[in-house]
Specification:
The complex is a heterodimer. Chain A is about 25% helix and about 20% strand. Chain A is of the alpha/beta class. Chain B is built from 6 helices and 5 strands, in the order ααβαββαββαα. The chains are: A alpha/beta, B alpha+beta.
Chain lengths: ~800, ~200
């Protein structure tokens, strides 16, 4: 036993003649594991409630602890241990062994012999346990029950009903863990099967987990179906790159191609679950527009170039451009972010660097500089023990899937969830949470009001999770800090992208150096300069992302090093593209030929996360290092490219591999001096909402048109539909005369979009649309969130 | 000091060796005039592989990779894919999209044949497996597939013998269309080509 909390809670049992002490209420099947006896099982899963559906784990109980035997074999996965209990498994008891073989025979009666075409063949618990605990020969010579195969539970998840042994792992997962009970057992007897309603496909963000825990090949994914066999695959543990949760994954690859990804098992982070985005969205790295070689612009056209030529041209161009800035996006690893940070300071001599490729504010920069670096007050486990969790500017199901599953688990115990949001989302419903309806822009007031809110009762046992979207709301981050200070609750910042927290820690901000060293602090600057072996570092705070774009457009900045930024995510997509067009010299580090790369003067192809080692830092501040999955020597990480340019610029960075950078980061260490103080929040500009206008609220769905989900049509088909949401009163006013179904044409200062409309419990005068589920996204096509839009109704 | 040679050693021994030569001149010649004259192999000789077809021309291979798994020399590479209603290569849902046997590695042991669950893979008696480049010795699916016999149709095409794959596997289909006499293949023996039973194992 590794966990022995108190001696009083221990129960002594004898399993196969071996005495063992286990905590009270331990199931016999787990107790047997501890003495190294594997009782065969299908329905049992450590993270799901015991159900005893498959009956495969029968054991003999000669003494139930009261001196009397239990007359028939018992399912060990539903039987808690009792003091003095004697258990005999198949190892010592012919009765248990015969019972297990009998159950196995029943299970196999209707199970088809299509293992050669079954995706599970080779890694199938039924195959394995039929070999270890079943009869060698079948005695069944009837006709097996068959079903037409397969049926699509969703565009991604396919069900072969004849393979199903009705263990109910999938239905239990959707009910207990994900809270999306779209599938259920239907029919009776031999016809009993997993069913789905015709009008409600299995559109869960976590549907892929059911495929992984299915102990037979009944559930398969359209994406992996027939792609390879388990014995072809090489498995490498890695970390999911789609959100800041740092979920452990297992990447299975064959001949340099990723074939599938599975959830890893990390009890401290994602337990055994990952979202469908983490599981299925990996085809982006194999798209036809993936860059394979550096390119330089000559006579207005990009042409292929050698690495050394491209380094030289990039260095020459940046030197000629005068002052340059760096935009890194939020997707890079911590090592790459460190390289960008050092490159900006050492090679370009500027603090003009920002990782925030999204709407941001000076207030957020202050918050990130003073509060976020090195903070790890809240961890996943704390979410489960918290009395109340306040979510502000964060929709966990869409933006941080692992947090959502933890919160749902916590909410089923005793944690209350409170969301400061415009409407009750499906995620909040599933967490049984309470909504504090908030008009976008008024989050600060809502957070301040929470301090004396008796129903929320936020105290030292509470946790406040603020999302990156809170930056769009004036004063909200300051209000959240204030709330945490007055109530004693712990605060954590949850960004959307995997690289965001790492970028903060490594100083990809105009006011921050790596390790939490504030630029404004002379001591911190000297500390960093000493570590880097340079004379001095630029001492004035740099421009933030918006200011960099503005300065480029005005010609105050000449050069730009830009990596992994999608202009459509930035505060003003049109202005960003115009600035890149206008800039004198642009160096683009990209995976694929994007809008930015097509406009750049030098384009470097960078390695996707599968091709390089790196570290993602989770929202908790937990480093999640991973090694390269595929060996691809032509695919260089950002840091190697930046090192190459810096060498040509005459100020080498002193590293060439992720491991060099890790060592350097290690030796540089965190800043132990004072943190930057929070700056004063500027006065809010006077509101200028037009009459009859709606305030726009928006965030990204988990599955949308993001470029890192490209290449899997099945996954895209499981995305939630793009709909606009208004409250019933507004719906009646706008669409009442039109009858259902209606569409709304929203018009903002950047254009208009037309979407179907649904009703939600939004406050008056608020409309919500998904940020990137239609067209080029809300920021490019409509308006920036928080601004006002007008709505015109039409009949669909 | 050497002994003086006897008479036998002086006169008989030098010519005695020619006795074998003279005797052989009157015996039947064992030389095989390969490659001008080919001798048939033993009927169960392990030669080049063949991917068989159903009598309507659909492929028997389902891309299950059990052959690749069984192969002790890692000579077989398979990639499977889904049949669609528009493009059907085999009965059932799955077919082998890529099928390669590397004859630089293959030791012609026949374990793959034993592993094949659909009798798609059998061996012919063809033994002339030499070539001038390494690349040419990796046989693709197109090189390994059995030739189309009369009555067979080049896939992709729908299932012609039954309504689903069960009919194929149970043999619940009418006798093969007329004119399916076995035809000679490029191998010395053609028995592996006959529709039923395939191969010799």
């Amino acid at each position: 036993m590794t966990t022995t909390p108190e001696k009083t809670g221990l129960v002594n049992v004898t399993i196969d003649g071996i005495q063992i002490s286990v905590p009270k209420d331990t199931l016999v099947i787990r107790a047997a594991e501890q003495i190294g006896v594997q009782v065969p099982r299908f329905c049992d899963h450590p993270l799901l409630a015991p159900v005893g559906a498959c009956r495969q784990c029968l054991v003999d109980i000669p003494d139930a602890g009261n001196g009397k035997p239990i007359p028939k074999p018992q399912a060990s996965c539903t039987l808690p241990v009792a003091e003095g209990m004697v258990v005999q498994t198949q190892v010592t008891s012919p009765v248990a062994d015969k019972a297990q073989q009998g159950i196995m025979e029943f299970l196999l009666i209707n199970h088809p012999l299509d293992c050669p075409v079954c995706d599970k063949g080779g890694e199938c618990p039924l195959q394995n346990q039929a070999m270890s605990n079943g009869r060698g020969e079948t005695r069944f010579d009837g006709v097996k029950r068959t079903f037409p195969k397969p049926i699509a539970l969703s565009p991604q998840v396919l069900l072969d009903r004849e393979r199903c042994i009705v263990c109910q792992r999938c239905t239990r997962f959707t009910d207990e863990i994900a809270g999306d009970p779209f599938i259920a057992l239907i029919e009776r007897g031999a016809q009993q099967q997993i069913g789905v309603a015709d009008d409600a496909p299995f559109l869960s963000y976590f549907s892929g987990n059911t495929i992984q825990i299915c102990p037979v090949g009944a559930l398969t994914s359209a994406e992996y179906r027939f792609r390879s066999r388990p014995f072809d695959l090489v498995s490498t543990p890695s970390v999911a790159e789609h959100d800041s949760c740092g979920a452990a994954i297992r990447v299975d690859h064959r001949r340099g191609k990723v074939m599938r990804r599975l959830a890893g098992n990390d009890a401290e982070v994602n337990e055994e679950w990952i979202s469908d985005k983490d599981r299925f969205a990996f085809h982006y790295a194999r798209q036809p527009d993936r860059l394979s070689h550096p390119m330089v612009r000559e006579d207005g056209e990009l042409r292929p170039a050698s690495w050394s030529e491209a380094f030289a041209v990039a260095a020459r161009g940046l030197r000629a451009a005068g002052s340059s800035a760096v935009l890194t996006g939020g997707r890079v690893t911590a090592e790459d972010a460190y390289a960008y940070s050092k490159f900006a300071r050492v090679a370009l001599g500027t603090n003009d660097i920002d990782f925030r490729a999204r709407p941001h504010s000076a207030e957020e920069a202050d918050f990130l500089t003073s509060f976020v670096p090195l903070s790890n007050e809240v961890e996943y486990a704390d979410l489960e023990t918290a009395s109340v969790v306040v979510l502000a500017g964060l929709e966990p199901e869409d933006e941080a899937a692992s947090i959502f599953l933890r919160l749902r688990k916590a909410s089923k115990a005793k944690t209350r969830i409170v969301a400061v949001a415009p409407f009750t989302t499906r995620g909040l419903q599933k967490m049984n949470g309470r909504l504090i309806p908030t008009v976008p822009g008024e989050e600060a007031d809502a957070l301040r009001a929470l301090a004396d809110d008796g129903e929320t009762a936020l105290d030292a046992g509470g946790v406040i999770l603020v999302g990156e979207r809170l930056a769009q709301s004036h004063g909200a981050l300051t209000a959240a800090l204030e709330l945490a200070r007055t109530t004693g609750a712990r605060l954590a910042w949850v960004p959307r992208r995997a690289g965001d927290r790492g970028a903060v820690e490594t100083g990809c901000l105009p006011t921050l150096l790596p390790g939490g060293r504030p630029v404004a602090d002379a001591g911190a600057r000297v500390d960093a300069a000493t570590a880097w072996g340079t004379g001095s570092l630029p001492d004035t705070a740099g421009r933030d992302g918006n200011a960099i774009i503005a300065a480029l457009a005005k010609g105050q900045l000449g050069g730009l090093v830009i990596g992994g930024v999608d202009p459509r995510d930035t505060s003003d997509p049109a202005a960003t593209l115009a600035a890149i067009d206008f800039a004198q010299f642009v160096v683009s580090l990209e995976l694929r030929l994007t809008e930015v790369a097509a406009r750049a003067d030098v384009v470097f192809p960078v390695a996707p996360v599968t091709d390089k080692a790196g570290t993602f830092i989770t929202w908790e501040g937990r480093p999640r290092p991973f090694e390269a999955v595929l060996a691809n020597p032509a695919s260089l990480p950002d840091l190697r490219i930046l090192a190459g340019i810096a060498e040509e610029l005459g100020s080498p960075l002193g590293f060439r591999t992720p491991h060099d950078v890790r060592a350097e980061m290690e030796s540089m260490g965190p800043w132990d001096g004072a943190r930057a103080p929070l700056g004063p929040v500027k006065e809010k500009k006077a509101g200028r909402t037009k009459a009859r206008a709606f305030v726009l609220s928006s965030w990204k769905h988990l599955l949308d048109l993001g470029s890192m989900q490209d290449g899997d049509a099945h996954l895209a088909a499981t995305a939630r539909a793009a709909v606009a949401r208004v409250n019933p009163a507004a719906y009646d006013a706008l669409f009442g005369m039109l009858g259902e179904p209606a569409t709304a044409t929203l018009t903002g200062d950047r254009g208009s979009v037309t979407l179907p409309v649904e009703v939600g419990d939004l406050p008056d005068g608020v409309v919500w649309v998904p940020a990137n589920s239609a067209g080029r996204g809300v920021l490019a096509d409509l308006a920036s969130p928080g601004s006002s839009v007008t709505i015109k109704g039409a009949r669909r | 000091m050497a002994e003086p040679k006897t008479l036998k050693e002086q006169f008989w021994d030098p010519v005695a060796g020619f006795g074998v030569t003279f005797r052989t001149m009157f015996r039947k010649v064992v030389t095989e005039q390969y490659p001008f004259e080919k001798q048939p192999t033993a009927p169960r000789f392990h030669g080049r592989h063949q991917l068989n077809r159903w009598p309507d021309g659909l492929e028997k291979c389902i891309g299950c990779e059990l052959c690749a798994w069984a192969c002790p020399a890692d000579a077989i590479y398979v990639e499977a894919d889904s049949n669609t209603t528009d493009e059907r290569f085999s009965p059932g849902e799955r077919y082998g999209r890529v099928y390669q046997i590397n004859y630089l590695r293959c030791i012609l042991c026949g374990l793959c044949i034993e592993a094949c669950p659909t009798r798609a893979l059998t061996m012919t008696n063809e033994y002339e497996l030499a070539d001038t480049t390494r690349a040419d010795l990796i046989y693709e699916k197109s090189d390994l597939l059995a030739p189309l016999l009369p009555g067979m149709e080049q896939p992709p095409h729908p299932m012609l013998l039954g309504k689903d794959d069960t009919d194929y596997y149970r043999g619940d289909f009418a006798a093969p269309p007329v004119g399916t006499e076995p035809m000679p293949t490029r191998g010395p023996s053609d028995h592996a080509n006959a529709p039923e039973p395939e191969g010799t194992h």
